[in-house]
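Record FBA_2 domain-containing protein, 144 aa.
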Amino acid sequence: MDTEKISAHKIDLSPEDLNVFLRSWQEGKTNQKLRKIQFETCVERDVKEVLNGCGGELMDPRTAKFMFRDGYQDMWIHGGILIRRNDGRLAVIDINYYEYSTEEQNVTEQEIQKYLKVREIWNSEESSNKWNEKQFFMYIFSEI
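=>
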């Protein structure tokens, strides 16, 4: 199966399962045509565990903006986690789950506070610090 969009809700995938899916995409083994993923797991999963070994870079929503075209609609993603596939394609994992309709829209204070909180966890070596999420939205770009 090589689809452009995957949407799955209340799925029972472990952090390891999600990690294998992402790494397989990164290595170019699967989902060559994939452009958009929306996963919602049954229970919260540790984001750092899901992205272990993926080389993700946490982006500040105040300074990083990405335009994604979904059909005829343009939407803007502010911040997120940037990962790269072995052929150079980039993906942004949205951490705010809010799609802006214009580039000029400002990030909310709530999104800034979430970013600051998760940045501490992201940069922490302390294994007891968890960043738990149920939703994993990923947008894939041919270039940024």
